From TrEMBL:
Extent of Low complexity compositional bias: 40-52
Transmembrane annotation, as ranges: 7-27, 269-294
Name by which UniProt lists this protein: DUF4349 domain-containing protein
InterPro entries, sorted: DUF4349
Chain ranges of the DUF4349 domain: 80-289
Chain intervals with Polar residues compositional bias: 53-73
Region of interest (Disordered), ranges: 40-73
Species whose genome carries this gene: Shimazuella alba
Top-level taxonomic group: Bacteria
Keywords: Membrane, Transmembrane, Transmembrane helix
Presence of the UniProt keyword Transit peptide in the record: no
């Protein structure tokens, strides 16, 4: 083979290499652009996530300030009749252990369970329990319940002042009882049957109203004496399995990740091959022409 033929082959091979390098450069630039855009969107998502934690901590801070207000209500205004209700959300790893701890707290504070429900979803389980807690044990119950949670719990406390309504009920009950006594005295002095029937009807209406007023009074007094606390305990269903079979889970995770990476690699190779196919066809045509020219010159 002459020097001219050697240089021709070298030029063809150089052209092939240039086409492959240029095609690979544009392909990798395209891929890196997609990855950078995905990283940017992920960074925005991760940046927005702390706000939820901030809200949770802020709500917890508000609950602590509400506890201080609750303490001042008990000490400074003894005649004020308040009805309190609290909602506390707790997150734990061991659901049944947390439930046993909560039952122990309820027993210590003389709290009685009003309702209980539980549910299990695809990725979590929760138990919701409502207690009637003596008002003097309200803060104690909350403080002990917060210690069960693995993270700072979300606590919301609401208070309702029923002092005015209780005073009004007391006055109305007093007036109705006085009217009842007068009607009973009038029945003893009634001389005709029609007067007796009228007094009995009026007395029956007064006694019915008196029963309604006293029932409402007892209901409010019970709500004042016993505050309501609803505790919701949430736990992930797969965490115990991860703790018990951590090696198996880790091995299976790595195997799946390898399979996914291999599949992605095959897809990327197929995409690169599809993009480089026109260059390969062009290189093949040039190579074929060069080979035919060299054979023709060799024969001549």
């Amino acid at each position: 083979m002459s020097k001219k033929q050697i240089w021709l082959v070298i030029g063809i091979m150089a052209t092939i290499v240039v086409f492959i390098v240029v095609g690979s450069y544009f392909f990798h630039s395209y891929q890196n652009g997609n990855l950078n855009s995905e990283d940017f969107s992920n960074s925005k998502t991760s940046f927005s996530s702390p706000s939820s934690n901030g809200n949770m901590q802020e709500s917890t801070g508000k609950s602590s300030s509400t506890n201080q207000v609750l303490t001042s209500d008990h000490t400074t205004e003894k005649k004020q009749q308040m009805v309190y209700h609290a909602d506390i959300q707790i997150q734990v790893n061991q659901l049944q252990t947390a439930k046993k701890q909560l039952d122990h707290i309820a027993k210590q504070t003389s709290a009685s369970m009003v309702s209980s429900s539980n549910s299990e979803k695809a990725d979590e389980r929760y138990i919701r329990v409502t207690y009637n807690v003596p008002q003097n044990q309200f803060e104690t119950f909350l403080e002990h319940s917060k210690k069960i949670s693995d993270i700072p719990p979300d606590i919301q406390i609401a208070g309702e002042d029923v002092s005015e309504e209780l005073v009004d009920l007391q006055s109305r009950i007093k007036a109705k009882r006085a009217m009842e006594a007068r009607l009973i005295a009038m029945m003893d002095k009634a001389t005709t049957t029609s007067d007796l029937l009228d007094i009995e009807n009026t007395l029956g209406n007064v006694q019915e109203q008196l029963e309604q007023l006293t029932g409402r009074q007892k209901y409010l007094q019970h709500r004042v004496a016993f505050s309501t606390i609803t505790v919701e305990i949430t736990s992930s269903t797969y965490q115990p399995l991860q703790t018990q079979y951590s090696f198996i889970n880790q091995a299976s995770k790595e195997f799946l990740d390898s399979c996914i990476n291999m599949w992605i690699g095959l897809q990327l190779f197929a995409i690169w091959l599809a993009q480089a196919l026109p260059y390969l066809i062009l290189i093949g045509i040039i190579s074929l022409v060069a080979i035919l020219v060299l054979r023709k010159k060799r024969k001549s």
